[in-house]
Amino acid sequence: MVDVPRHNAAFCGDCFVRHCHDQVERAIHHFRMIRPGERVLVAVSGGKDSLALWDLLLDSGYEADGLYLGLGIGGYSDDSAGYAERFAKRRGAALRVVDLPAELGFDIPTGASAAHRAPCSACGLSKRHLFNAAAVEGGYPVVATGHNLDDEVAVLLGNVLRWDLGYLGRQQPVLPGGDGFARKVKPLVRLGERETAAYCVLRGIDYVVEECPMAAGNRHLRYKEAVNGIEERSPGTKAAFYFGFLERIAPLVTPAAEAEREGLHPCPGCGSPTVAGVCAFCRLAEAARR
Ligand code: Q46
Ligand code: ZN
Questions:
Q1: CA distance readout (Å), 167 to 172, 263, 286
Q2: Given the CA of residue 108, which atom of ligand 1 is nearest to it?
Q3: Any idea which of 80-89, 114-123, 268-277 has the lowest mean pLDDT?
Q4: What would the pLDDT profile of 120-165 be if each residue is shown by its tens digit?
Q5: Measured from the CB, is residue 120 less than 6 Å from ligand 1?
Q6: Which of 121, 176, 186 is nearest to 148 (CA)?
Q7: Per-residue pLDDT tens for 151-201?
Q8: Is 245 within the bounds of a domain?
Q9: Is 69 helix (H, G, I), strand (E, B) or coil?
């Protein structure tokens, strides 16, 4: 049995897998994430969330290909690539691979220190850029990522603690596509990380369990711990916090973020839309290669 205190429910294995499908379908339809016939590029890290997402989308009949980014984070990157490749092979699904050190000439630790950014900031920036570029180039209108309810709650708490209205305005389960932009969607926002882990176990999906070594000290991990303590005593708090934000606060803060997109123009280095002269990714890559 898998218990989900948030829903005051316990499921047998088959019903739990169905519950995961229901939650993903509800998110996709409610937020209009994927339209019929659209090809989806799934950002795959080799971890439980992205492999569960890819599996769920394939089983629901979506044309979903994976994209794995080799970030050059030592043995962790080699291990996680193996999990992504084995999953793709088992499912007979197409996996694209972009290896940063081999194809772009730098890795995340080098890029972060050269650009004077925290590793996760350099990594997040690179991932957003490279997933979007691969989607645009490959003709995928949608990029799906494995962010789950716990991830979104931790990010939301961080944004609220700093009242960062810019980030709050962009914290949506769907970011619209546009010229040079694929739509970004998060179909797992109705599932917590305990649920994606249980889904993988029930479906026999092997995933990388080891944490990225650069995550140590990451403040999102601290926010997750804090919220888990509250959720344990008051199940449903995470969902109420996140979906309450989407319903009541997001409509007040998204218009400013959308207006920002109007100032976008193509980066002279890579052609990706940017509000700066040369985009942040090109500046990072150039600093790293120097
Ligand atoms: S991979 Fe990249 Fe994460 Fe590692 S460097 Fe940070 S952001 S922790 S999801
Ligand atoms: Zn650029």
A1: 10, 17, 26
A2: 5
A3: 268-277
A4: 999 999 999 999 999 999 999 999 999 999 999 999 999 999 999 9
A5: yes
A6: 186
A7: 999 999 999 999 999 999 999 999 999 889 999 999 999 999 999 999 999
A8: yes
A9: strand
Number of domains in the chain: 1
Terminal CA-to-CA distance of the chain, rounded, Å? 55
Asked if residue 226 belongs to a domain, the reply is: yes
Structure confidence at residue 228 as a pLDDT band (50, 70, 90): very high
Residues spanned by the domain of 59 = 2-262
- Taking a 5 Å cut-off on Cβ, the residues next to ion ligand 2 are 267, 269-270, 279, 282
From ligand 1's centre to the CA of 285, what distance in Å? Answer: 17
244-270 pLDDT, tens per residue? 999 999 999 998 888 777 788 889 999
C-alpha to C-alpha distance for 191 and 49, rounded to whole angstroms: 10
Query: Is 221 a pocket residue for ligand 1 (Cβ < 6 Å)?
Result: no
Cα 172 to Cα 123: distance, rounded to the nearest angstrom: 20
Q: Judge whether 61 lies within some domain.
A: yes
Distance CA 93, CA 116 (A): 38
Within-domain flag for 56: yes
CATH number at residue 116: 3.40.50.620
Please give the model's pTM, rounded to 2 decimal places.
0.95
